[in-house]
Task: structure prediction
Amino acid sequence: MGSTYVDFRGWGFEANDSSPEVWLALLVDEIEKAPAAQDWLRELRDGWELQATAQFGFGVMPGLDRVIISEDRRTTVLALARRAFARLQSFGDPIPRATLNAIRNWGEGSTYAGDVAASKFLRPASYFIKLLEGTRAPEEIDARFAPVASAS
Result:
């Protein structure tokens, strides 16, 4: 399993691919619950569903800068993320393998074989939310949450 770098507005974090896959699957579920989702949100759902389950082998790319082009979109995705985070927390610690395997059809041979510590998913999910909030207080950040390197 590879790693994913998720970034938004010049900041980002790195996580094992499986964490953002589960996170995006939970976000997709929240979008599906949204009544009368706008076109951009339905497109986001479709893209994140693919990212969560396709196992491309080169990381998960939520494309936040491409999708969140207005304050309205940012607040919409942030609200969805907070609901998905509450659901993730409700799974307990460790998260039972049956719960993880039920979130999505992960494809043959790629199901969870055992329970997994909740922190594996909660930490990246909290970083995702912090990116959307624009909050990165030093006491809340570990070494994996950093500014995106400039391309100079």
In short: The chain has one domain: 3-147.
